[in-house]
Amino acid sequence: MADKFDATSTTDEVLAGVDLSGKRVLVTGVSAGLGVETARVLAAHGAWVVGTARDLAKAERAVQVVRDQATGSGGIELVECDLASLENTRACADKLNAIGLPFDVAIANAGVMATPFSLTKDGFETQFGTNHLGHFVLINRIAPLIRDRLVTLSSSGHRGGNVDLDDPNFERTTYTEFGAYGRSKTANALFAVELDRRHKDRGLRATTVHPGGIQTELGRHMTAELVEKITAMARSAGQNTTKMMSSKTVEQGAATTVWAGFVAPADAVGAKFCEDCHVAEVQDEPGARSGVRSYALDPDNARALWTKSEEMVGESFS
Questions:
Q1: Is residue 6 included in any domain, yes or no?
Q2: Domain membership flag for residue 2
Q3: Looking at the 3D structure of the chain, how many domains does it have?
Q4: Domain range for residue 235?
Q5: Where are the extended beta strands (E) located within the chain?
Q6: What is the pLDDT at residue 221?
Q7: What is the pLDDT of residues 257-315, one digit of tens each?
Q8: Bridge partners for 303 per DSSP
Q9: CATH code of the domain covering residue 206
Q10: Segment 135-162 mean pLDDT
Q11: Residues designated as active site
């Protein structure tokens, strides 16, 4: 696959000349940041976007730019979905299934980052419960509607740690904001690996992307004290903190999402981890600032997480 795009590529550059007329796409988390930009560029190229959000009033204001720039058959509709509530998430899935229209691509974009310790309405640690379990239930329940690809958003934060299936709610482990975030982002990647295995024979492929460091509402919990703590930990691990603190624009951050969902060949990205508009290399060196940890793509790890997730949500998915 030719390296036509890189870390500086924008969504508009990636989709230049691509006609998405007739495509129907699900994007979770369209009330701010990457979700809005992803929806904007898809609708601008003719796709119909179904966007989910916990706060529909906020999302309605945020997606005006999507409506303003939509072309042809492109546009957006909103559906309520609070991924921190399994009841609400299931209601969203039921609504989408009742409508019955297929999605060419689903993009699991919504998430929270570095939150103080708290529990979801169902008693799960907030970051694991929202970022992983909410999407696990939503996507599995509507999986028959998804025809081509699932793109899950992970993060370089997955390098902060593997999932802990013996203590997912930090009942025995000391809670840290980024430790929990890292676990949830590893879970996002593993979910894609196992879903890809289960559905690829019918043509549905799943992939994971790291958008890059971007200043969005996702960082609302990033206090100066927390930033200093993370920086100190990185220095002690031998990492280059100047590179760590560099950031992309939102347009650059969402570029890998649309590249993996609509431009890259499905077989090239299925069950893979992508960053900067290319497939990332497995990199287990502690100080590495690029690449994906092997545990985030391990098929046995992915199957174990799937089983644990079914146990936690009280629901099995074939």
A1: no
A2: no
A3: 1
A4: 11-312
A5: 24-28, 48-53, 75-80, 103-108, 146-153, 205-210, 273-275, 278-279
A6: 42
A7: 999 999 999 999 999 999 999 999 999 998 888 999 999 999 999 999 999 999 999 99
A8: none
A9: 3.40.50.720
A10: 97
A11: 175
